[in-house]
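Q: What structure does this chain adopt?
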Amino acid sequence: MESTLDEWLIFFFEILSKHENVVFLVKKVDLTFMFSTFVFSYSLEHRKRGHKSPLFIQGIVEEKRIKDLAEKFIKGYDDLFLVDVKLKGNSGNQKALIFVDGDNGVSIDQCSQISRQLGAEIEEEDFMPGKYTLEVSSPGLDFPIILHRQYVKNVGRSLEVETNDGVKVEGELVVVNNEAIELKQKGESKLLKFEEIKQSKVKVSFK
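A:
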């Protein structure tokens, strides 16, 4: 499906507002001279300022498209949800990591089916040039909890929470609401607002 120039412009400026170090290099899109000049000037200015090597817009577009497709296929499962998508490597030799979770866990068969559907769609649209690998899996216990729905599914488990101040708090997750979580620690409760939390992980016990 071809996008119009206006759609690309809107998308680019949305990215620009979030990623100030991005240099826009575009494939398969007819851009006006004015927009091309803007892109070149933006790139040149940031090179003069000594920024690190740029990220290319192609990778951002590919990652966004993979995320959109993954969400479409995951909607076929009522209890599954997309956690994150990470694209590693360079154009022509990339690995797409798709992390899927579920209210009751996610099975290997479900991951395999989503991977097949996603791979077939990528091949049909042909937006990832060269060699690429798809990996669809659950986040794993060492993967940080980043979604509200993940907190809900882990009620009753022990969490290790790091606050924005660097303080680490451990306890059983007993309550999750729209604003905060509550941990139980040796008979006492600790309330932590989401805005205070830097990172949370499920604590694995080998007792």
